[in-house]
Amino acid sequence: MSPPSPDDRDPAPSLSPPGAGFAVVVLTSMNLLNYIDRYVPSAVKDLFKKDLGLTDAQTSLPLSAFVIVYMLASPVFGALADKVSRTRLIAAGVALWSLATAAAAFAVDFTTFLIARALVGVGEAAYATLAPPLLADFYGPEKRNRVLTVFYVAIPVGAAVGFTLGGFLGAHWGWRTAFLICGVPGIFAAGAALLIQDPRRGATGAASGSGSGAAAVSWPEALVTLRGIPSYVYAVAGYTAVTFAAGGMADWFPVYLTRVRGMELAAAGTAIGTVTVVGGLFGTMVGGYAGERLKTRTRQPLLAVSAWSMVLAAGFAAAALLVSDLTASIACIGVAQFFLWFYNGPINTLIANSVGSDMRARAFALSILCIHLLGDAISPPIIGFVSDQTGSLGGAVLLVPAFMALGACIWLRGWRVVK
After folding, report:
1. Rounded to whole angstroms, how far apart are CA atoms 371 and 377?
2. Is the Cβ–Cβ distance between 75 and 361 less than 8 Å?
3. N or C: which end of the chain has fewer CB atoms below 10 A?
């Protein structure tokens, strides 16, 4: 099977199927809850470290367990989507991850905490693999960048709420309360998912190499095809490096502010939450807008926006760790967050547009596998291990801007060579 040509990739603009707006609202709300639940552990890391008697490396292993299970389960749900209603799979996944988040509140040791966080990965795999392809079937390629930008705005907002709420609840009522309260709302979101209509595959355009609604290709065939699509390969390769940096930043920067910069737990959570929501919200929106504006001004505008913004993100992230003044450090973290999130809408839109609807779930599932296997599944424990071995958390977190720079280089290369 040959890679799809630009004319094969859902070429014709079309009206969105009924219920498209409702789907955006529900799925974006789920994305918000997703990232609240994901980053609560980072906000209360030192609290459960002390209570459960863990090392720095061990405090990050639950996040790695979650990510590993998440990435391994994603291809499974990508295949199940061909046989089972995607909205039912999403609903089941959201319910499972919410219950698992709440279950962490009852952990009695490292093992039980690890198991609870790992189960969060199973639930999120169903949602994260299927939500973007579902939205792509509701909206044609001419609207996808805008719609996916709205969808991915929930990531920095959710992460910020997770940092802020987790830090506040942890400081006042303990880390167990933080997990319990943050896990409950997802149960209601799971019910709302059952009300979303599952549109026909390719409902907003023809599938690559076949008619609308064609059956998805097999995994072996999909892997061969995806490997031969340069835009997809460069997008995912850079995405992997950036996810390594983002995972390390999310998991260790709140602790960096308390341990290295001397901030109180609640204040550090609030600071990281504030700069994440402000920088991430505006960064995601501006990045999506810039991708639209550059369509007629440069080749591969989605790669161009992502690459150059990541150059700036890497520079400000490095400055945040090297300046001596606390206020300046937090300000640099905020600016780094702003540029870091530019890529969210553009890169995921590029992934969606690189293939036809018959292979979109496979493309996102493989992307999730790659960005987590070599990204945020390994960056938090690596930073923790370096911190344990060197006795310098400040030095260990310099891996964050280094991998931002690597992602920028990959996307810059793609911008110059992809046709």
Report:
1. 8
2. no
3. C
Rounded Cα distance between 174 and 162, Å, is 15
Q: What is the DSSP string of 318-379?
A: HHHHH-S-HHHHHHHHHHHHHHHGGGHHHHHHHHHHTS-GGGHHHHHHHHHHHHIIIIITTH
Which residue ranges of the chain lie beneath pLDDT 50?
1-13, 206-214
Give a yes or no: residue 5 inside a domain.
no
Residue at 144 is within a domain: yes
Give the single-character DSSP code of 398.
T
Structural tokens at position 65:
């367990």
Query: How far apart, in whole angstroms, are the C-alpha atoms of residue 120 and residue 103?
Result: 10
Q: How far apart are CA 321 and CA 247, in angstroms?
A: 16
Range of the domain at 75: 15-417
- CATH number where 135 lies: 1.20.1250.20
CA distance 95 to 102: 11
Query: Has residue 7 been placed in a domain?
Result: no
Q: What are 15-74's pLDDT values in tens digits? A: 556 678 898 899 998 888 888 887 788 788 888 888 888 887 788 787 778 878 877 887
- The C-alpha atoms of residue 51 and residue 261 are separated, in whole angstroms, by 23
Contacts of 142 (CB under 8 A, 6+ apart): 13
- DSSP state at residue 300: S
What pLDDT digit, counting tens, does each position of 118-173 carry? 888 888 788 878 888 888 888 877 777 788 888 878 877 887 788 788 888 888 89
Listed in sequence order, the residues at least 6 apart from 84 whose beta carbon sits closer than 8 Å to its beta carbon are none
- Our CA angle for 193, 372, 267, nearest 5°, is 80
DSSP H or E segment with residue 392: none
Note whether 144 and 93 are within 8 A (CB).
no
Please name the residue that has the structure tokens 């830090």: 167
Q: C-alpha distances in angstroms, 281 versus 167, 285, 317, 345?
A: 20, 6, 18, 12
The pTM (predicted TM-score) of the whole model is 0.70
> Does residue 276 contact residue 156 with C-beta atoms inside 8 Å?
yes
Angle between helix 326-340 and 399-417 (nearest 10): 30
- Contacts with 100 (C-beta within 8 Å, 6 or more apart), sequence order: 116, 117, 119, 120, 122, 123, 183
Q: How many domains in the chain?
A: 1
Domain for residue 1, yes or no? no
The label of the residue with tokens 């799809």 reads 4
